[in-house]
């Protein structure tokens, strides 16, 4: 039987390592591949954000999840990729709207500013909400420069 699970590339820096591990254990209905980091030792977030962004951009994965302290470093890095729409989410309704309206393809979680409970809730919402298309597609088509 083919593997029909949604494929997720997940990565973090040291600040996001513990939430990454928690999400891997929690999101069992998805096919997650861990792009590191693999400990709480200090690392540079672009070394993990670029590989995740590239894998999503190349359509090897359906979505990405990136986690760092504020989510800004990983989001800024991922959004350098032409076909990436990385969205920082700190509450559930934002995760809902970045999927419905922005067709975000990478979720960025600020580990130092949300609880683990909220991080799990955000991830579930992001991964199970469809893009609405229509007028939102027109706006997305105008993003590139
Ligand atoms: C690491 O200390 C921290 O700077 C990083 O996780 C992130 O918040 C950067 O945007």
UniProtKB/TrEMBL annotation:
Query: Which residues are listed for D-ribulose 5-phosphate binding in this entry?
Result: 13-14, 69-73, 102, 112, 135, 139
Enzyme class label = isomerase
Keywords, comma-separated and alphabetical:
Isomerase
User: Could you state a single Gene Ontology molecular function term?
Assistant: ribose-5-phosphate isomerase activity
Indicate yes or no for the key word ATP-binding. Answer: no
Q: Which GO biological process annotations does it have?
A: D-allose catabolic process; pentose-phosphate shunt, non-oxidative branch
Question: Cross-referenced InterPro entries, in alphabetical order?
Answer: RpiB, RpiB_LacA_LacB, RpiB_LacA_LacB_sf
User: Where are the catalytic residues?
Assistant: 68, 101
What does the record give as EC number? 5.3.1.6
UniProt record similarity statement: Belongs to the LacAB/RpiB family.
> Mind telling me which PANTHER family this protein's record contains?
DNA DAMAGE-REPAIR_TOLERATION PROTEIN DRT102, RIBOSE-5-PHOSPHATE ISOMERASE B
Question: This chain belongs to which protein, by name?
Answer: Ribose 5-phosphate isomerase B
Phylogenetic placement of the source organism: Bacteria, Pseudomonadati, Bacteroidota, Sphingobacteriia, Sphingobacteriales
Corresponding gene? rpiB
């Amino acid at each position: 039987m083919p593997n029909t699970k949604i494929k997720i590339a997940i990565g973090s820096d040291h600040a996001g390592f513990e939430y990454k591990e928690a999400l891997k254990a929690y999101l069992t209905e998805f096919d997650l591949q861990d792009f590191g980091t693999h400990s709480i030792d200090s690392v540079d977030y672009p070394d993990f954000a670029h590989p995740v962004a590239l894998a999503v951009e190349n359509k090897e994965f359906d979505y990405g999840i990136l986690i760092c302290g504020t989510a800004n470093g990983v989001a800024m890095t991922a959004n350098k990729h032409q076909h990436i729409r990385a969205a920082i989410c700190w509450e559930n309704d934002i995760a809902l709207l970045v999927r419905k309206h922005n067709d975000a393809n990478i979720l960025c979680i600020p580990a130092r500013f949300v609880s683990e409970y909220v991080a799990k809730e955000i991830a579930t919402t992001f991964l199970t909400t469809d893009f609405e298309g229509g007028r939102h597609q027109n706006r997305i088509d105008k993003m590139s420069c």
